[in-house]
Amino acid sequence: MDVVWGMDRTRFLIALALGLAAGVIAALGSGGDVLWPVYGARRLLAGLNPYAAPYPALTRDPAYLWLYYPLPALLLCVPVAWLPDRLAIGVLCGLSAGLLVWSVAPHPARWPVAVSLPVAVCLIYANPFPLICVAAYSLPWLAPVAIAKPNVALPVLIARPSWRWLPVGLSAALVAASIPLGWLDHLASHQNTIALATPIGSLAVLCLARYRDPRARLVLLMACMPLRLNDTAALVFGARTPLQGWLLCAASWSFLLVPDASVLVAAAAIIATIAAPRTRRHSSVRQTRSAPY
Question: For the whole model, what pTM was predicted?
Answer without folding.
Answer: 0.82
